[in-house]
Amino acid sequence: MNIKTVATTPFLDQKPGTSGVRKLVSVFKQPHYLENFIQSIFDSIEDYQGQTMILGGDGRYYNRQAIQTILKMAAANGVGRVKVGRGGILSTPATSCVIRKYNAFGGIILSASHNPGGPDGDFGVKYNTSNGGPAPEKVTAAIFERSKVIDKYKILEAPDVDLDTLGEFKLGDMVVEVIDSVQDYEQLMESIFDFDKIREMLTSGKFRMCIDSMHAVTGPYAHALFEQRLGAPAGTVKNGTPLEDFGGGHPDPNLVYAHDLVEILFGENPPDFGAASDGDGDRNMILGRKFFVTPSDSLAVLAANATLVPGYKDGIAGVARSMPTSQAVDRVAASLGIDCYETPTGWKFFGNLLDAGKITLCGEESFGTGSNHIREKDGLWAVLFWLNILAVKQQPVEQLMREHWHSFGRNYYSRHDYEAIDSDRANQLIAKLREQIPTLKGKKFGDREVEYSDDFSYTDPVDGSVSKNQGIRIGFTDGSRIVYRLSGTGTQGATLRIYLESYEPDPSKHDLDPQQSLADLIAIADEVAQVRALTGMEKPTVIT
Ligand code: G6P
Ligand code: ZN
């Protein structure tokens, strides 16, 4: 076995963001860049010698090449076995599932999630720990510290391996096992949901659905689940072949980027149900006939109806949402008498709550929903959850949502993004907002009076760790909120996100366009932060 130790010098920009390190492909392709980061992972973790690791990615450009490098580095660093998805394909939720099922010490996921791919697009590396979830901050911080001083890495000198044939072979002393990308995940889904009931609905001839995989990783999973296993007709899954550049699209399931699906569900004679997922398969968007379900409402609906699904028939222990996610689920939790936790943005903050059994379901406004079945958010799980509920209730999506609002009130919600703004300007805007925090309480804007204002800080109830500066909140006495934060997932300039929410208990007022019903809050948000003046942008680039 020929293990090479290669001298290197650190790159100083390998700080993991909300979800791993994401950079342009051109950055990752610099000599030693990927290797430095991977070696920093191995140097920062313990007890992996001879143990099992999971490896896969969303199929984007550079996926295959990076997998070859990582396999050779894993072999050189003493990993016992790597289970790698066939063709290098493993969705983020499937990776989490496989880590847990086979007691792996961790996994490496190659993805920049919903960011565009291709030679000019983004690439990313995430490290997940043995619980199947994103590495907690203390681990990512250690990896970053190591990356700043790293001076060598280890790699096996060996020819590239065949990633396309299932089976086991040796790479140095390590076993490489090429696994079916879908099988373990499909089995897990079958253990949670009532497949018979869903199949009955999908083959009844009375229910039509459409899934948009956006040329990204969920294609093979969606084909296997919905068309082969659950009986939906061929063609139900659109854009179902993963492409290295996602067909030139932006694989983010929202009303702007999932336009193919939106055109179908809002067009002539639309199907009953539509859903899309992102690059690595952890996000989801749910649509009914000419009807959009906000991710925050989706979480609330899943929580309210969880006992209809076999996997949650005994009830849920608690729920959690990220701070900027609407408070719709809080109302469901209150009525169920269970705890509702408010965490910072980033799925990793749910991990401890799930591990400790404090919560069963969790979700984020950024089109993420999930449960204790794995430790990542899970796009197709959310789709199956909705289908299971619809199959039991025999109701259209819109009616289900309206009845939910009728019972719990409606949280009008919208997010306004200002993308690719100059980083200095964005930081200045946030700094100015921070200065205003102590002065806002009691201030009146039209009918709304500020009840509190702060920069969100979270103390993890399980390990006591504190995460500060997680977004500026302005809460009003009527329950409405404005939240500002800078995205932690972008790669160019900064993205300002403004989250707007108001609560409407009166069913006769549940029919408004959210932009209309939130219009005064939108104006207040601009007035307080001087968004237009400081960004030089007249309107948001994306509204969801
Ligand atoms: C990723 C994370 C999510 C997070 C989202 C938005 O998808 O997994 O947990 O909510 O990014 O992050 P951003 O920092 O861009 O708002
Ligand atoms: Zn994703």
UniProtKB/TrEMBL annotation:
Pfam families attached to this UniProt entry: PGM1_C_vert_fung, PGM_PMM_I, PGM_PMM_II, PGM_PMM_III
Gene Ontology MF terms: magnesium ion binding; phosphoglucomutase activity
Origin: domain of life: Bacteria
UniProt keyword terms in alphabetical order: Carbohydrate metabolism, Glucose metabolism, Isomerase, Magnesium, Metal-binding, Phosphoprotein
UniProt cofactor(s): Mg(2+)
PANTHER family named in the record: PHOSPHOGLUCOMUTASE, PHOSPHOHEXOMUTASE FAMILY MEMBER
Protein name, entry field: phosphoglucomutase (alpha-D-glucose-1,6-bisphosphate-dependent)
Organism field: Chlorogloeopsis fritschii PCC 6912
